[in-house]
Amino acid sequence: MKKVLILAYDFPPYVSVGGLRPYSWYKYLNEFGVYPIVVTRQWNNEFNNHLDYIAPGDSTESIIETTAYGTIVKAPYTPNFANKLMLKYGNSKYALLRKCISAYFELAQFLYLTGPKAPLYFAAERYLKNNQVDVIIATGDPFILFNYAAKLSKKFNIPWIADYRDPWSQNLHIQQNYILKKWFSFFEKKTIRSASLITTVSDFLEAKISELIENKKFLILPNGYDPEAFENIELINQQSDSFNIAFVGSIYNWHPVKSFLSVISLFIKNNTGSSIKVNFYGINNMTELNEMIAIHFNDLSNHITFHPKTENKLLIQKLAKDNILLLFNNYSLSGTKIYDYIRLKRAILFCYANDEEAKKLKKIYFRISELKKTNDHLQEDIINETNSGYVIQDSKHLLSTLDHLHKEHSKTGLIQCNTINTEQYSRKHQVKQLAKLIHEFSLQKK
Fold first, then answer.
1. What pairs with residue 192 in β-bridges?
2. Phi, psi (5° rounding) for residue 5?
3. Domain range holding 130?
4. Range of weakest confidence among 46-50, 406-410, 431-435
5. Is the domain of 338 the same as that of 240?
6. Labelling 433: which of 61, 232, 414, 423 has CA 20 to 30 A away?
7. For the chain, what is the radius of gyration of the CA atoms?
8. How many CA atoms within 13 Å lie on the side-chain side of 216?
9. What is the pLDDT of residues 241-292, one digit of tens each?
């Protein structure tokens, strides 16, 4: 049986979209003849919010756990001084000092093994001294893991694969800062030079990475849904006593959330006594959204509920009770939530395909340069291919669609959805492709 060592910072029990990809590798690779060893950090989810990312681990030593799926090596985690200040005093105090300390470690970690993430390298190094593996995979971000994989590859003569979930030096935040752009593009080129292969989630990311990294082989491994999380999901009924719309995850500046809320507000005015509810699950900007609602949409206060981050399987069970799933346009990026949405077989509201206000937001905030040879309507294509929802053109179309769906819900107690062709988007299907690569792809020893 082949063995693969996986460097993955985000990993359950930490609640993170980024952790779902390596978790699927860990859970399913063994079924295809590959034994996974995951090196991650210790997570304890003490706060159930953003502070979990910087909270200390349970032990100063690595914790090794072996299960039916594989092995997990949990490296110790000690917050740096900036994070200790955050944990003790909150976000309002010592902001400048914390920013300076964090910036130091973010840059210095590429020069020498320092910072709170370095224990992952040392834990992997200790494991490799006593155990043989066939390949190393590092999934980013954080992209310092690519640096660790390159070092381990050189030291132990093991080929490594760079898995990009997102851009590295081509990230918008980095591109806006000349020094950061130069710094990280230098280390990205230097680090990826030794990788035997690059895997990523879409043709768009392959095209973007290829602008910087030339002459590398790529394999597209799209994200997807975890089939195990959907076991018995068909037994959960939709809400019949209220008309529920759900949204999961991050809201970005180019998302027309204000337009959406204005339509909901208008819908309520037109349908006095409506039982419509909007559920936001684990969003990234609850404070800002609450302020927007208080200032502009006070009439919505009794119709909107915010839910904390939740482990994926439990989240799926909650979403199954909702009637409609809201999805904002990410253009050339498919995101990850769409795959859970289509497997839930709850009607998707895609906002928007051709709305003037949304176009203005895109022009201002969506600064990811779209390439002519890549698809800038990935989500629309998936929805149409799977017959999983409604591609909403603009705010007027949204209002009329809500009227139609509300009448259906009032009459039948649910919203009908006839989704098809979901199997190809299973994460297990993607893991099968990865296992095939590990078995068949001739990785060159250095």
1. none
2. -95, 125
3. 2-78+116-224+427-440
4. 46-50
5. yes
6. 232
7. 23
8. 27
9. 999 999 998 899 999 999 999 999 999 999 887 889 999 999 988 889 999 9
